[in-house]
Amino acid sequence: MSARRKISSTGKLIAEWPLSSAATLGSSVRARGIFLEIRARLPAALRKLLHIESRKVTLRLPEGSDADIQAASAIVFEAMHDIEDLPVIPREVEDILTIKQGERRRWLTDGRLQSAGTRTVKLRGRARKITFHVFDPRHIEDVLDRDLVAVWREEDAAKVAENRRRAAAKTAIKRSQKRRHGPANDIDASWDEATRLRGWEDFDMNGLLR
């Protein structure tokens, strides 16, 4: 597996834009996601000028480069206006809320995590596209501020305990029924065999029971 390419931060610093806590929601994964989103808006030739350093998006001009730094700066400046409203993608949600993938999927399915729509992307090196849910950053911020993750985990634990209790009770009832009816069936069968009269088959064949 190839290591992620390390982005060089060398070159003359032209401009920098701090990423606010309202934008990153305290997540380094979210900060990098915002950086990648902004970089994707730049023309391919200018993307190598953009870096992320200590939760700051920076624009650096390598020595000897004649890249259009003003055009790049204008695009980044415009993109920074709406970074706090950028949808939150699954891996960012998991990092922000410190939850597992299974929890995210379960809470999305039952509606506790509210989807803000879906996004379809094609991953590098893969032919097939993938579609995933994205989330409103204000909703994720609300979940974080109200510590709803702790509440939901308690609810899930209580549900699991209740399901186990019901399953145990159901199993106990089945065992009780089996113990109650099983021996009776055995007694009935043995009694019928023990009390069968000699010559009964001949008696039945004569039609006297019809």
Average pLDDT: 85
Largest sheet: 3 strands, antiparallel
* Number of E-type strands: 5
SSE order:
EHHEEHHHEEHHH
How would you write the strand order of the largest sheet? 1-3-2
Give the DSSP E fraction (strand runs of 2 or more residues): 5-15%
Domain count: the total is 3
Report the helical percentage: 40-55%
**Alpha-carbon distance between the two ends:** 85 Å
State the secondary-structure class.
Answer: alpha+beta
Shape: elongated
Helix count, DSSP H or I runs of 4 or more residues? 8
Radius of gyration: 34 Å
Which regions contain 5 or more consecutive residues with pLDDT less than 50? 1-7
Region (Disordered): 163-187
Biased composition (Basic residues): 166-182
Mind explaining what this structure looks like?
Residues 163-187 are annotated as: Disordered. This protein has helices spanning 21-24, 28-40, 69-79, 90-97, 101-109, 137-145, 148-194, 200-205, and strands at residues 12-18, 50-52, 56-61, 115-122, 129-135. It has 210 residues and is α+β, with helices and mostly antiparallel strands. The chain has a 3-stranded antiparallel β-sheet with strand order 1-3-2, with helices on one face. A two-stranded antiparallel ribbon has the order 4-5. Helix 2 runs antiparallel to helix 4. The protein is elongated. The termini are far apart. Residues 1-7 have low confidence and may be disordered.
